[in-house]
Design a protein that fits this description.
The protein is of the alpha+beta class. The protein is built from 13 helices and 14 strands. The longest helix has 21 residues. It starts with 6 loop residues before the first strand and ends in a 6-residue tail after the last strand.
Length: 401
């Protein structure tokens, strides 16, 4: 496994929105135009006729919708004109689009077969009358054009098959609203994109069961046992050395169950997803803690080996060399924040403990479990989603981000 491709994403509170036009008919237009759009205001307002690109105020939009008898509440007995249910829905959808979707927010759009994920690039909405084709090829003879005028810029990242969506998102994606707030499901959305992500208090691990066969109960229970052990192993690894006594205590299930804090949310139909959460240790270097936990989770789910990880994390050291105790960087002397020397220390810990880590992996049958379940982690091209106006990430084998 190339650890430089494994990222730990940081969730910093941005909202997540599902936006689609006419039930996904314009998904390819969204990508081609690098936009999201809605048509809700076009029925009442023409920016070309108004000779201004300024967005109308909320009050003006309310009055414009009220002027249409289709959206006027005719059952009210008061003289105050009010919107009916359809009018209120349209009004709030417009306001969500204009006022609530901000730069840096995660955008999800979809059709019947695909889910596309991007990052909003501008808090300010704009008008445009330029029709958008579904293809970037000027010679493509596409007839359906996107003409919705109210737009926001979006940088689109990966497209994921809806067949690979399980759990709560599967039902949520059935919503027919043009705009839906998915912020309560941010963990599920991040889990589609990244193998690891953090909210600064916990590390989340996302893996995918790819087999379509019935799942053997013994195998799935052993997977959860291995993942639960990861937190305890990482804690021991941060001390510097894993002992034979510690390995025996793990293999013989001698540790107090109250010491295990990993939790799981699983949708392991065949195929399906497994999401794990581990609280981060307090007072330790944040980058070091994240990477140690992530590495052990990869080891205990059979995704990599300790020696392979050591070579990638600290390639300057030959496999036959070990730092002397005076050369070893001690985690106790790492500042709470910062990334200097983190990879070197983690690489040396992996190398120093590789034999015993591999012994534990063999005893816990991690390779067999991975093979039987066809266990993988998300591997999408997400670079478009990252950067100054997007998601911040740390690479497993690099301190550069």
């Amino acid at each position: 496994m190339d650890l430089s491709e494994v990222k730990i994403a940081n969730y910093n509170g941005q909202r997540v929105w599902m936006v689609r036009a006419q039930e996904g008919k314009f998904l390819r237009h969204f990508r081609n135009g690098s936009v999201i759009t809605i048509s809700h205001l076009d029925k009442f307002y023409d920016h070309l006729a108004a000779q201004t690109n300024d967005i109308p105020s909320d009050e003006v939009i309310h009055k414009l919708i009220l002027s249409d008898p289709d959206f006027l509440d005719t059952k009210t007995k008061t003289k105050i004109r009010k919107l009916n249910g359809a009018g209120r829905n349209r009004y709030h959808q417009i306001l969500h689009f204009i006022n609530d979707i901000k730069k840096g927010d995660i955008i999800v759009s979809l059709d019947n077969s695909k889910v596309m994920i991007g990052v909003c690039q501008s808090s300010k909405a704009h008008f445009s009358s330029r029709a958008i084709s579904s293809s970037a090829d000027p010679h493509s003879h596409t007839t359906l054009k996107l003409k919705h005028r109210l737009r926001k810029k979006v940088a689109w990242g990966p497209t994921i098959s809806r067949q690979n969506i399980s759990g709560l998102l599967k039902g949520t994606f059935q919503s027919r609203h043009t705009i839906t707030n998915l912020t309560d499901h941010w963990k599920d959305v991040f889990g589609l994109l990244y193998p690891f992500f953090t909210d600064s208090s916990s590390l989340y691990y996302s893996s995918h069961i790819g087999t379509r066969a019935d799942i053997n109960g013994k195998i799935i229970s052993k997977l959860f046992d291995n993942l639960s052990n990861a937190q305890i192993i990482a804690k021991e690894l941060m001390k510097g050395a894993i002992t034979e006594e510690f390995i025996d205590s793990i293999l013989n299930d001698e540790l107090d169950w109250d010491d295990f804090n990993l939790t799981a949310k699983a949708f392991f139909m065949s195929p399906g997803d497994v999401f794990n959460k581990i609280p981060l240790p307090k007072g330790a270097n944040a980058s070091f803690s994240l990477k140690v936990l992530a590495l052990v989770l990869l080891l205990m789910s059979g995704q990599t080996s300790a020696q392979e990880a050591a070579q990638q994390l600290d390639p300057s050291v030959s496999s036959t060399h070990l730092y002397t105790p005076t050369d070893m960087i001690d985690e106790r002397y790492l500042p709470t924040n910062g990334t200097d020397n983190v990879d070197r220390l983690l690489g040396e810990l992996a190398r120093k403990n590789s034999e015993r880590l591999e012994k534990m992996k063999t005893a816990q049958k991690t390779a067999k479990i991975k093979s039987k379940l066809k266990l993988t982690i998300p591997k999408h091209e997400t670079s478009v989603l990252e950067g100054n106006s997007g998601i911040k990430v740390t690479r497993m084998s690099s301190n550069e981000e």
